[in-house]
Amino acid sequence: MKKYHFIAALFCIALSSCGKKAETVFVVVPNASQVPANGTAVPGFVAPPPGVLTGAERDITISHLKQAALAIIQFTDKNNDLFPDLSSIEAVGRDVASFLNTDPVGGEEIFADGWGKPFKTNISVSKMNLDKIPDTRNTVLLYQDSADGDSRAVVFCDGHVKWIRTDQWPAVSQASGI
To answer: How many percent of the chain have pLDDT more than 70?
Structure first.
């Protein structure tokens, strides 16, 4: 396995009411000669395999799904138990924008995983009344399009979020009408 050096740059933004957060950014470089003057190389770490989110990216993915679910649940509560338009992630964003406690740019980020790839929607529950969904705990609302290693992040219609293993996804998606 090839070793890489990591450059860790810490960007701290004070938490404020406008929703800013502190971020840690890691940049992978093949050797220490590529370390910029203001960076620090930390030898001995192995880069994660391609297509696998790091711990921070997985945390961001889960956080975004939880925030999106909360906004959708608030929308549903204020609209006679009807889900928003789930024909696309952009349509969801438009419908629930007023329920997001963030600026417009941050609102767009909430509907994407740790890589910035937009979540997919379960069109089968689009504009559906909550009472018409027989099992909200097991019906997918939003999900990560591609698996992160051996699992993908999913939020269900009752608002809970979890990682679903790749081998379980076909049954979960079929039961949800995806």
So the answer is: 64
